[in-house]
Amino acid sequence: MIIKYPQNLLDEVHRRTVGRQLAGFTPGQGPLHPDLMLVGEAPGRHEEQVNIPFSGASGQELMKFLASIGYSRANTYITSVVRQRPYSIKRVRDKKTGQIVEKFPNRTPTKREVRAFAPLFDWELATVQPRIIVPLGNTALQRLLGPTANIGKLHGQRLTQPIQQATADRKGYQWSTAKYTLVPMYHPAAVLYARRLMPTVQADWQALGKIIKEIK
Ligand code: URA
């Protein structure tokens, strides 16, 4: 299922991101009330083109981890804290022609961009109501648990605690009154860059598989 976001929240995001280097719009996808809601950082170029979250190289890695605990895209909700592709503008010399050409590579979203999308993400979480939130990497983790949370310390752990939500004036975050179950994981791109992380990430996913059984 492709989620239909409320128009007033989409308009608000648009107002707050005008003029920023953000492309496309890739909605979150998956069933409501799933066991798992996987939360990434932002769509990349592949996601922007096909409009399916985590469908590029990181996504393929992620699907293998998901399959290792008996889950798939069909029964998992997949989204990220920013719904547009953040890009930078680089001028580089084309090796063949010698001409200067512009490139638009992916970049990490800024804190301000993550804040601009925060009410949309809060709405998405409240609508999807997963049993377990799985932040993938520091951008998603810090959006939910604040700037001191660190994936290197928290990966693979089961946390039950309040999360950050956008304040009514939209200037920052406040802690939720409700508690949520979270199991932070390394972002799948981390294993693409550092293969040595693979055994740790595989063990974290197995731990997540056990946690799901415990809480069901
Ligand atoms: N990285 C993310 O965080 N989300 C995607 O959808 C793709 C790559």
From TrEMBL:
Enzyme class: hydrolase
Keyword match ATP-binding: no
Keyword DNA damage among UniProt keywords: yes
InterPro entries reported in the protein's UniProt record: UDG_Type-4/5, Uracil-DNA_glycosylase-like
Alphabetized UniProt keyword annotations: DNA damage, DNA repair, Glycosidase, Hydrolase
SMART domains the UniProt entry points to: UDG, UreE_C
Top-rank taxon: Bacteria
Uracil-DNA glycosylase-like domain mapped to chain residues: 27-206
Record EC number: 3.2.2.27
Molecular-function annotations in GO: uracil DNA N-glycosylase activity
Name of the protein: Uracil-DNA glycosylase
